């Protein structure tokens, strides 16, 4: 039986996609090598995976082949410093774009969206990451609750001590007022007795004069 015709579209299953990539990449590299040997051709092949990993084959010096290609199609000379600077920043931008896309995809998966294309291995890894994240959240939550409870206990102790101090001060003031009242009453009593004594002394000469 002959091989069935493969429909040319993106393979949704990540595992199948990786297997197909590895097989066809190796086949393509082999064909490039055979072409350079059989036909004495100068072949330069670059392959970038979806994760940004690079695979290459060059029958001659890769830089020389790229230079010849640029010259053939009219691209600027790569030895120009200005061009190298532009290429560097262009490469940096592309790398940042790939990193952003990877992070956005990961964030989407972590929120439980767009996971239909994930295989069992990817789903297990995602589940493990979610469990670790949930445990970290719970740990942080427990720490905050514990710190808040400790703060409330310390505040309660401070208020209790303040209340005891104020109660003691109030009792001292109350005892002081009572003592002042008693002293005042004694002073008044002694003053009244002194007045009575003086009045009696004043009356005694009158009595003496009357009897005389």
From TrEMBL:
It comes from the Eukaryota. One of its GO terms (cellular component) is nucleus. Its main location: nucleus. It holds the Pfam family SRF-TF. InterPro entries: MADS-box/MEF2_TF, MEF2-like_N, TF_Kbox, TF_MADSbox, TF_MADSbox_sf. Keywords: Coiled coil, DNA-binding, Nucleus, Transcription, Transcription regulation. Residues 86-176 form the K-box domain. This is MADS-box transcription factor 23-like.
């Amino acid at each position: 039986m002959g091989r069935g015709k493969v429909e040319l579209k993106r393979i949704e299953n990540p595992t199948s996609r990786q297997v197909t990539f590895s097989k066809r990449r190796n086949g393509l590299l082999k064909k490039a090598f055979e072409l350079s040997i059989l036909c004495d051709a100068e072949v330069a092949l670059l392959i970038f995976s979806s994760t940004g990993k690079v695979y290459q084959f060059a029958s001659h010096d890769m830089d020389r082949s790229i230079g010849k290609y640029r010259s053939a199609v009219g691209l600027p000379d790569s030895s120009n410093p200005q061009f190298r600077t532009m290429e560097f920043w262009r490469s940096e931008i592309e790398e940042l774009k790939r990193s952003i896309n990877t992070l956005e995809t990961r964030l989407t998966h972590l929120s439980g969206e767009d996971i239909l294309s994930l295989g069992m291995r990817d789903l297990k890894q995602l589940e493990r990451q979610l469990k670790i994240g949930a445990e970290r959240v719970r740990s942080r939550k427990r720490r905050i609750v514990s710190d808040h409870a400790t703060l409330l206990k310390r505040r309660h102790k401070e208020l209790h001590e303040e209340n005891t101090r104020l109660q003691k001060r109030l009792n001292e003031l109350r005892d002081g007022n009572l003592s002042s009242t008693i002293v005042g009453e004694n002073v008044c009593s002694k003053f009244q007795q002194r007045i009575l004594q003086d009045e009696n002394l004043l009356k005694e000469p009158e009595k003496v004069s009357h009897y005389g």
